[in-house]
Amino acid sequence: MDSKQLQQTFLADRAKILLHHPQGMGNYFTFKSAVDILGLDWDELLPNGVYNITGEGYYDMGYMANLIGPPESAVAAMKEHSSWEKLRIYPPDLINELKVLAAKKKFGRELGDNFTVMGVEGAQGGIGYTYATFLNPGDEVITTDPAYFHFVPGAELNGAIVKPIKLGKHNGYKLNPKEVEAAITPKTKMIVVCDPINPFGVVATKEELLEIAAIARKNNIIIFNNITHNTHQTDASAQHYPMASLHSPETPMDHVISVSGVSKGYGMPAIRVGFMGGHPALLRGAFLLKMETTKIHINYPGQYASLAAMQDYNYLKKSTEILRRNYKHIEETVDMTEGVSIPVKPQYGFCMIIDISATGVSAQEIATALLKYKIGVITGDGLGDVGDIEYIRLNYSHPDIKCFELFREALPKAIADAKKGIYKQDVIKFFEKIGSERGKRIIERIKE
């Protein structure tokens, strides 16, 4: 059998869904797509198969890793607890100190009869367990367009039907309670509230969250509240509220499942530490599912590193200052670059969008040219239909200001190169090879 026959014969239907899914890994355009187009050396840019660009002279503004890195206190704690005693036994789901701290610091709750926290393999693990625990085939899930890469395919591989709400200026680039209520049908099982929202970095107001929670409660709908990017307040005037923290006798949040981790806030994606919070009766189902699939508890050194990091307030202060400095630099760059704009100012985290639609060329062509000038970015087609060829998502967490100085030099050059049409056919070939329906629409738009 050839590769296609092997896949069609042996893969489960849920795996087949991902083969040509526009948001399946490898099926959307990133700086990695541009590596082959430009004929660059993979080992030079991404040695040992790492996800982020680490090649000398290159800067990664694409994947959402906190490039500031971990606090020294976390590294010291990890070394201290990498001992013979700790490594020879299975760790608990979460050590008690970390469970208490995660409940209070990440979700704004105390542990008790109606709230607990379990450990998961990063916030990404929390996404998978939430979908697998609560979704049945045919259930409808309300999310946004654009949205984090894995929200849509993760739901669909569980047999759910995704009902996206398009984001734009009309709703402030976030979920509007009235639009959410209008999207509900008798089949709606879950509302995904990503807040701060990836890719725009904006946050919902307390009133908006309470209204969405009330709508879901009235209709017996579970809320999946992903708050992965809530550690850094990059806009001092904004205030983020974990939905779990809004729990009261008048506004019970027992129907809310909350997920966060330490990758974004504390620069430790390699240790895969995440938290899933909710009512113990609901998390019991998630825990049992986890034990029958991965059966992975977070390693001891990683748990102690997370405990140290989440109490390192000096690190949080310094890293927030870096992010505010970096955003200001990008804002100035955009202001001086013709055809580029920022749809909405990010408020939390280090994730933002620039809109290049006024340049007259696609985001994919510009992304290819940016890599030529040693800047890696990710384009909008992996996030949804909205902004698929108009949006470039940026990670502005790099601690070295040289990254943003190079971006300022590279952006106008990349636009000028893209306008020459030298990458158009290669971008078209990429989407032809993927064969997704979104890719086919993108080809037609690029050809116009």
TrEMBL record:
EC numbers: 2.6.1.-
Organism: Dendrosporobacter quercicolus
Residues of the Aminotransferase class I/classII large domain: 63-397
Family: Belongs to the class-I pyridoxal-phosphate-dependent aminotransferase family.
Cofactor requirement: pyridoxal 5'-phosphate
UniProt key word Oxidoreductase: no
Keyword Transferase part of the UniProt annotation: yes
Principal EC category: transferase
Gene Ontology BP terms: amino acid metabolic process
Protein name as catalogued: Aminotransferase
Cross-referenced PROSITE patterns: AA_TRANSFER_CLASS_1 (PS00105)
Keywords: Aminotransferase, Pyridoxal phosphate, Transferase
Pfam families: Aminotran_1_2
Xref: InterPro entries: Aminotransferase_I/II_large (IPR004839), AspAT/PAT-like (IPR050596), NHTrfase_class1_PyrdxlP-BS (IPR004838), PyrdxlP-dep_Trfase (IPR015424), PyrdxlP-dep_Trfase_major (IPR015421), PyrdxlP-dep_Trfase_small (IPR015422)
Highest rank taxon of the organism: Bacteria
GO molecular function: pyridoxal phosphate binding; transaminase activity
